[in-house]
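new request in #modeling-help
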Amino acid sequence: MSETPENTPSAKPKSFQAIILALQTYWASKGCAVLQPYDMEVGAGTFHPATTLRSLGTQPWAAAYVQPSRRPTDGRYGENPNRLQHYYQYQVLIKPSPPDLQELYLGSLEAIGIDMTLHDIRFVEDDWESPTLGAWGLGWEVWCDGMEVSQFTYFQQVGGHDCHPVSGELTYGLERLAMYVLGVDHVMDMPFNDPGSPIELTYRDVFKQTEEEYARWNFDTANTDVLLRQFEEAEAHCKMILEQPATDPKTGKRIIMAHPAYDQCIKASHMFNLLDARGVISVTERQAYIGRVRALAKMCADAFVQTRAGGWSEDAA
Amino acid sequence: MPDLLIELFSEEIPARMQRRAAEDLQKLVTNGLVEAGLTYASAAGFSTPRRLTLTIEDMLGESPSVVEERKGPKADAPEKAIEGFLRGAGVSRADLEERETPKGTILFARINKPGRPAAEIVAEVLEHTIRNFPWPKSMRWGSGALKWVRPLHSIVCVMSAEDGAEVVPLDVDGITSGDVTYGHRFLAPGAITVSSFEDYEAKLARAHVVLRAEARAETIWHDATNMAFANGLEVVEDAGLLAEVSGLVEWPVVLMGRIADDFLDLPPEVLQTSMKEHQKFFSVRNPKTGQIERFITVANRTTSDEGATILAGNEKVLSARLADAKFFWENDLRVATSDEGMAAWVKALENVTFHNKLGTQAELIERMAVLARELAPMVGADADLSEQAARVAKADLSSEMVYEFPELQGLMGRYYAEAAGLPSEVAAAAQEHYAPLGPSDDVPTAPVSVAVALAEKIDKLTGFWAIDEKPTGSKDPFALRRAALGVIRLVLINDLQINLGEALVSGFKEQVMASDFSEMHSNPFGSFVDHEEEIEALETVPRYGAIEMILRTDRAFEVFLQKTRDGEYFSEQESHPVEKAAAKEQIEEFCAYAEQLRFLSGKSDVPAWEDGDHADVERRFAEVFNIESENLLAFLHDRLKVYLRDQGIRHDIIDACIAMPGNDDLTLLVKRARALSETLKTDDGENLIQGFKRANNILTQAEEADGVEYSYGADVKFAETDEERTLFAALDAAEAVITPAMEKQDFTTAMTAMASLRGPIDAFFEAVQVNSDNGTVRRNRLNLLSRIRTICTSVADLTRVDG
């Protein structure tokens, strides 16, 4: 059977980066602003302000980006075939969620070379909740042949605020997805750039050493007193920023510093994750820490909706 | 008469909600139709991952017209009242009819309600149903305000009759009804126009959608078992999983895959749990070895490679999952078999809270160890082994496997204890000590397991009792009723004779002693830098449940704590108010007592005070423990009543037995209750109760009237009639049987002997007037009745038996 040019699948990607590039191209073609990763340590792509803060308020939004994410407790010294303490998420957020979001999503799988006629794609209930962000939504984890390849969520609440309109959020676990598409069994064996490049690099070449270093640091070395102090400092800093008057005394402009404050919230959250990995947080304390981060996230959300990007306008106010 | 087809087509509905949703759709729509006068012959609801469907057959084409009569005001009522009535009834003045009634002339309106076409009613009812659907969780999407379980895309609403089909027009927030649905998402995504339910179901089947969930489940089970059988294997049954998987696919295709050899030596429960929880796979077992060797997965489609790609993918995912499980298993085994062994896990539990008022898991284990050792002789277990088992039983809560799969707690403990080379009794207790959880769960019978299981439950009961977390009404957040039933079943099924009262006192005592109060009593509320620090210090106090229990007597502590939280009591400069000082003193005193108690039991090296009255310490605590233990025993008795009632033993019969001494020995109590229940089922037994009550009533009245107790001294020489003499003889004979029988706890013999008194007692009352004019004779007869009472109530408190 000869294929017409229109329905020839795009060249099947051969490397990790080719998959990322294919996703970028695909979502760009669907009208998303392709953003860059946020320059802070976060546990998931959701923490990027392009998702957390932009899902608030009434302003339309469409963004896609890669976000390096850190989960200190998942470190396995680079030995486990698919667990890493540092990995990449691909994140798409569209507000309001378009009616054909499922089809758009499936299109993205085809774009990275998943043959829809051979695989079994399923939408399995998975309600998303982020206790640290005071956020929840309903949706699914998307399975491809039994493997979770994405999270698909309709945000209902973020930072304690009801989402109006609702954002549709897609999160792809890039390593796992890429391993699947490329037929690789161990993440470290995955080609990072295309095989045949002048200098071939695998995921191992790029990340094996760092996985070891961070696993040792996360589990055994990180100074918990320092982490604790940094948590407290970030918390205090966040509150201090938000306590400032809306009007900047120097410029006389209305400048609510929602983003700088939110940076501190992200920092506190990451410190908590590190403390957790060090095993020094008991079950009861855990809840208390999560509650403290959530309180910060809520304050940041409250501040953001008072800004222009958050839907505030002079006329309404 | 027309048929109706409704389909609500949406994005994927969670499997667990589908069945209920189909039922709700049917119920809400049919109720709405019937309420509006549209009756029908039959209805049925269906669900798939993407649709809820309802078919209704032989529905009325229009609702019947009705004439409604409404009573209005009096004819001479003020004009305003009449106008209001006209407005409300929607009629004009000319439609009113005057009617003479006993209350005067009254206006009546006749309202003609013409029938309405079915389509109009259906549209209203369906819209109302969609807007008010009882999803357990629902959501908004896009810019809309409509709520559904996931975005709702289209509505089919078609009425069909012999002369054709028509769409019932309907618009819910921009979603308009039609006669178009869609097939399988991947295999036949195109639009399908439908005209009736038969047409719909047939076209869906051609478009790779099996509408009926039972049909999908049947296909899955049939194909899975066949496939396993062909390989000499069997599928592990799991009805819950089958129902769930049927809700994940519209076109089920069963595939059987292999588990990589590396993982076959994992415990079968680990394989099964990991495959089910993460992948929704069925386990396939080798019936000869019991080992799980393969898995069954259910895909939602056919493919040109007959599922080869799908299966390969699933096998790969499973390998990754099991690699995790193996990682946990091997790490855990390394700990369990290390020099420190499972003690390392127990140590880690020092940082894990059991309950914030009852301390850590490690403290819980300490209490369990003491209780298990104490209970061991009573359940025929070795004391050292029981204590050791209690110390190991919860260690697996620190293991990585249990962290990942909490439902494997206990079972993993057993595996790890075995790997650590611990005695088999200890390993078994790790698994069995949680049991029984439900009323039909197996009850452990191995003595060490029983000792630890009882210790676990007694600790739980006394602990939550101490902090006043008793079940109320339907609320039982810590499952104390279940724990109580667990104790009851452990005791009864193992036929144990345990002095539960004492065990409960020990439980309460351990609640106090497992905690270290030395810091608390030496300087609990020194001088605080700030208010928050003070509150923090105070809030650690009620963690020690027993202290709260003791202080609960007058709630002084609570008031104290609340006022401190409110900031009423804290001030850096001012001296503390008198109340605060008094409360502090009381808390400190009890902390000191608790610490002294620990010292006396060898739990602490430092006495709270050197001299002083140790007996006083014991006495003060014993008082509180005894009161609480009585209360808790009453709670256990209540649960026992429920348990025995289910076995056909009446409430009043149990009460009659609970009123007897030794009622904390549940085995004895139940033996007595069963014997009494059996006795009361006999003719003699039933009538004996009448005789006993009569004797008791006469006696009680006489005692009240005379102000004396007739308790002894009945003498046969004052007997005037044969019936009296016969009764004397019968009582002597019965007593001769009952006393030794009771000593041997042979209730059946005792009660049979008691029941044999029925004849003589009945005959006595027939022939004899107790209240004789002769005072001596009367007294003698009352004393005779007293013997009846004494003998009968030595068996059970018959005054509490209905009859």
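bot summary: Residues 132 and 290 of chain A are 5 Å apart (CA to CA).
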